[in-house]
Amino acid sequence: MKHKSIFVLPLVLFGFLTAAHPVKAIDIPAFPSCQSPSGTVVVNYSSGVHGIPGDSGQYIGSDIVYTVSDSQLVQCFCADSDSGIQTNWWKISSLTSDQINYLKNLGWIYIPSGLPWGLQDAPYMAQNTTISCSQPVITPTPTPAPQPCNGCSGPPTAPVCNFTQPPDPQLVSVSRTGSSAQLTWTAVSPVTNYAIFYGTKPGVYTFGVPNTGNVTSFVINDLVPGVQYYFQVRAVNGCMPSQGNTTGQVLGASTVLGLAGTGNLAQIALLGAAFIASLFLAWFSHKSSRRVK
Question: What is 171-287's CATH superfamily?
Answer without folding.
Answer: Immunoglobulins (2.60.40.10)
